[in-house]
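thread from #wetlab-drylab

HS: before we spend reagent money on co-crystallization trials with 1-O-phosphono-alpha-D-glucopyranose, can we at least see a predicted complex? here's what I'd submit
DV: go for it
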Amino acid sequence: MKVRKAVIPAAGYGTRFLPATKSQPKEMLPIIDKPTIQFIVEEAVAAGIEEILIITNHQKASIENHFDRSFELEYFLQKNNKTEELKIIQRISSLANIHSVRQKEQKGLGHAILCAKTFVGNEPFAVLLGDDVVVSKVPAIKQLCDQYEQTKSSIVGVQQVELQNVSKYGIVSPIHELSDQFRLTEINSMIEKPAIEQAPSRLAVLGRYVLDPHIFSLLENQTPGSGGEIQLTDAIKRLMPKRKVFAYQFEGRRYDVGNKLGYLEATVDFALNRDDLKEDFFQLLKEKVYRND
Ligand code: G1P
């Protein structure tokens, strides 16, 4: 079965970006001029996903507005012959069918995903986390969807992280070693934010999943785990005795935009890749580096 639906959790408080996130969603913070959540939605669309559910809360209305039409703004741009800007604005609202549902209480990622149960129904679905922006030839979630076509089993997207960083992530226990040639393996365990000594590998789940809908019945009675939250990782682990779960080492450069340094790095790299900015920006960076010498 083709993966047609995606879920994007976006109900967190974004405390790492306070005060910027006091009254605006962290998902709306831009990398240069595009909100981070638009990169995530575009990735899903580029993977052929047709229906997208964003999990929000009462403070996230600007996300819904962003993907809706804005007739006033369109009228203004048209009247002032701002054709390019008009195209950009109109394209956003026609990217995909975007739905939203509110998570009433912040009980963790697993609980947020459970809010998608009715939307997903009985089909496999993709999950994309907003803090992980990936730049790759083939969209990261498409790489996972393509694998799903072969395995017909849940897949988590992983990459190697430094040993000292394992406790920031969900870490998988692979059955086979992964490399650039062999990117897919079944996994037999998964642990959320392990201590270094407990990490079964350095393969971290980096915000991309394709899941079997059976996960919902597990999430419904999932007890709180790491950080006192209902963890998606714990429910996926409980899925393993019932259904196979795979890890796929996706190709691409991943930025942790939920972290200040990662966010800055993404901003710099994206600017250096943009035709309208790269020369001037590179010049500016050079001047700053030399001045600080
Ligand atoms: C979440 C997941 C974790 C995953 C990480 C990727 O953690 O729970 O398993 O590795 O995203 O970014 P969070 O960063 O929300 O604490």
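DV: The longest strand covers residues 184-192.
HS: ok that's useful, forwarding to the group
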